[in-house]
Structures
1.
Amino acid sequence: MARMPLAQRRRQLTEAAIRAMARDGVPRTTTRSIAAEAGVSLSVFHYCFDSKQALLESVIETITEHYLAVVKEEIRPRATLLETVRAGFRAYWDHVRAHPAEHMLTYELTQYALREPGFEHLARRQHELYCATYAELLEQVGAGTEFGLRVPVPVLARYLAAMTDGLTLNFLVLGDAAAAAEILDMVAEQVAGLVHDERLLPSSGRRPL
Amino acid sequence: MARMPLAQRRRQLTEAAIRAMARDGVPRTTTRSIAAEAGVSLSVFHYCFDSKQALLESVIETITEHYLAVVKEEIRPRATLLETVRAGFRAYWDHVRAHPAEHMLTYELTQYALREPGFEHLARRQHELYCATYAELLEQVGAGTEFGLRVPVPVLARYLAAMTDGLTLNFLVLGDAAAAAEILDMVAEQVAGLVHDERLLPSSGRRPL
DNA sequence: GTCTATAGGAAGATAGAC
DNA sequence: GTCTATCTTCCTATAGAC
C-alpha cells in the first residue's frame, strides 16, 4: 500500500469510520470494518490510533465541526426576522433530509460519549457548541434589525437547539419530513412573535413580522 | 433456586435488564450481567428468552408502557389552559429529574431498535405512542374549556413530543435542570398563546390565559 | 426449571518480519 | 509505515445432568 504521513492516515481513517458508522451503526462498527472501509490493514489502524477510543474521540470532534460548519454557512439574514428564521430552519431541514444517516450518527455518538467514562466532556462540548451557534445566529440577526426579545438570547438558543434536536430524532424515527417541516414553520412564527418591538406588534395579535 | 412460572421469570428478567441497562448502558449490558442482576444463572435466561433480541423486545415494550403510564397519571386539567400545560410539563420534568438514567435508556433503546433489522417498528411505535398521548391530553384539556387552536391537534402533539424529547436529551447532556424548566415555562406560554378564542386574547397581546 | 460446563465465534490489541 | 499471524478476552448460545 502507498505510504502516507501519519496525520493524513488519521484523517483517512476518521472519515472511513464516519462512513462505516453512519452505514452500520456505532455498535456494529469494529476496528476491522473501519480498516477495511479505509482500505488498510488492521495494524495500520493501531499504528495510527492507540485504541478504538482514541479514534472515536477524533470522530466525534470531526463530525461536530463538520455539522456546525454546514449550518453556519447556510444561514444569512433576510428582510424580516420571520423570513430569516424560516430560511434557517429550511436550510437545516434540507440537510437533515439529505443526510439522515449522518444525523443519526450524531445521536449515537452523543450516547457513546455519555456512557464512556472520561468522554462526557465531548458530548457536553457538542451540545454547548449547538447552543452557542444558535446564540451567535440570533445575535447576528438582531444586529441588522434592532429588536428586543421577550426572552434572553441564551434561553432561546438552548430552546432552539433542543427543539431541532428533538424534531430531528422524531423524524428519523417516524419519517414524514413534510410534517416535521410544518412544525418548524409553526415554531418560526412563534419565535418571530417573541420580538418585543411594539411597532411591529399590531393589536390583531398575529402575523407581526 | 426457587422455581417460578415462565411468565413471572420473564418479567423478573425484563426488569433486571432495565435496571442493568439504565446503570451500565445498553452496549455493556450482557446476558450474563442481566442474569446476575436477576440472581439466576445464564441458562435460565435462555430458557426464558430464545435470544438477547427477544429480551430486548420485551424491555422496549415494558419501558414504553411504564413511561406513558407515569405521564398520563400525573396530568389533570386545571383552571386555565396555561396552568394545565405548565403543571403537565412540571410533572414530566420532575420525573426526568428523578429518573435521568431511565430516560437515557429510552434514547439508547430507540437507537438500538432503529439499527436492528426488524426492530424499527418498535421505535416507531414508541414515538407514535408519545404523540398519541400528547394528542389525547390536548383533547382532554380542550374538552373542559371549549377552545379553538390555531394549529391542528396532531401537529401540536407531535411538536410537544419532539420538543420535550429534545429538551430531555439536552438536559441529560448539559445538566442544569433549572434552565430547562425555564424553557418549558416559556413553551407553556407559547402553547397557551395558540388558543384562538378572542375573548381570551386581549389586545395587549401577551399573558392571555 | 435450574444447574455446570463448554462450544464457537468475534472483538481489540500486539508481535515481529519486511 | 505496512504487512500477516496470533494472543487474549469476552460474548451468545447450547448440551446434558439433576
2.
Amino acid sequence: MHSSEILKSYKLSITESRIQILNLFHASKGALAHADIEKLSAAMFDRVTIYRTLQTFVEKGIIHTIPTADNSVLYALCKDECKEGHHHDNHVHFICDNCSTTYCLEKVTIPQVQLPEGFVKKQADVIVSGVCKNCI
Amino acid sequence: MHSSEILKSYKLSITESRIQILNLFHASKGALAHADIEKLSAAMFDRVTIYRTLQTFVEKGIIHTIPTADNSVLYALCKDECKEGHHHDNHVHFICDNCSTTYCLEKVTIPQVQLPEGFVKKQADVIVSGVCKNCI
DNA sequence: GTAACTGCAAAATATTTGCATCCTT
DNA sequence: AAGGATGCAAATATTTTGCAGTTAC
C-alpha cells in the first residue's frame, strides 16, 4: 500500500511532508526518532512540521511510540490492528546497543504478566536491548 | 540502611543534596522524574545538581532509569543485585494512567522472551500501564 | 471556498558545559 | 591540602504555540 493510500484510508489530507515521512518509515528497517527524520529528510520541511506530523500519525494510529530508557522518543509503524487511540502493538521491541537500530519484532509477542491484586493492565511494552543480528 | 551509609558503600562523598535526593527515593512509593525531585526538594538545591546527582546514581547503580513512551525519564531505586554499570532490574514496571505513579513491581519478574536468530539479549524492560490499586 | 496544513518566528522547556567557590575526606 | 561537589551563568537543545500564507479537497 502506498503512503498516499494509507493517508487516505486514515482520512488525512495527502501532503508532501506526510508522504515523505511515511516513506521514511517504510524504507527504514527500524524505528525512527524525530532527529532521524530531520536528518533523513535533509531539511526538506520544517522541524515543526515533523513534530506535528508525528503527533498526528500517533493519534491516528499509523505509528506508535516506543519507550526508551534515555530521553529519546522512538516511533515505528503500527500494524493493521491499530485503531485510532487504541494501539495493540503486542510485539517486542529490540534496541541494538551497538548500532542503535530499533526493531519491531513482529513475531515475538508480549508474554502475559501476572499483576498484583488491584492493578489493571491496559497496555504492556517490552523493550529488549542487546546486540542485533547485523552487529554480531 | 540510611542514605549516608548507602553513599558510603558506593564510595561517594556524602553531601547534603545526595542524601536528600536519596531520601526522596526512599520515601516515594514510585519512580521519580527529574521534575518531581525538583518540586519535592522545593528548590533546596540547584537544578543542575539534580541532573548531576541522578547521573552519578545511575552510573553507580544506585538508581535505574525506566523507559517511558513520552519523553520523560523516570528513575527508581535499584535493588541489591545492581552493580556498577550492570543493572539487573528484572522486575516489571507499572505506570498508572490516572495518577502517573510508577511502581516497581518487585514480585513480578520479567518473563523470558524468545528472540529471533541472531539477536542477543543483554537487558529487558517490561512496562505495563493501566490503573493502579489506588485509583480503581 | 473552506478547512486543514505548513513555515517562520518566538516563546517556553529541558539539558549541558565552564568555571569559581565551597565542602568532604 | 587536594579532589570532588555545588551554584551560577550561559550556551545548547528540544518542544510548543501563534499566526499568516499556502495547499488539498
